[in-house]
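Quick start: read one record
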Amino acid sequence: MNVRQHIQAIRIQLFQMSKLSQRAVDNSIKACELRCKESCRHVHSSAYELGLLHRSVAERCRKLLAAGLSVESDLCFTLSSLRLCAAFHRTYSATVAIVQNTLFSLEDDRISPASQSPVLMEMAQIVNCLVGLCTVALFEEEVQHAKRVLKNDDFRRCFLSVLCQAHDDVGQQNEAQNTFELAIAKSLARIAEQAHEMADAIASWLEETECTGIMHKHDLQEIAPCR
């Protein structure tokens, strides 16, 4: 097996997955903010390509691990690649949820863009920034960008604020608006969690730390069915 060839192919495919995931996050946020059906279509259009890349990366990584990797840096990269592959996939799933909720909101007259919570929009920008930093860290192979993501916890403050607002307004006229915003906030929180997972995987790879313990069990389960 040509280890270097597989690693280079994985690197290129991860770059592609990163760009597609970033684009999906951008478009899902635009769809939510502007109630834009075109942005919703852009998110759905990435599904096929992301699926192909997800299966290809997972398969290459499994082959490398099965063959045995004697170089520590290769092992760190391969295990981190599996984590990144799974995180990109989960991120995309969360953007699809945002788009679906946005499309539903377009059919509900009780939900108005003018009434949208500023805190929710702040949360969306924070999350988008976190995903963007992960993309930069991966492309430039600079760990400081990943560490900035790991230190940033602002999205939790925003999520709690949206959650409290929804709880306080139960039974009020804007209940439909709060239900919609809470659903969006939950999806944004999932994306932020995956950004932290991406950042941790990138840091583990670049710093070659805890290589044998960085692969989560659910990641292995998630990629197992790929054929």
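The radius of gyration is 19 Å.
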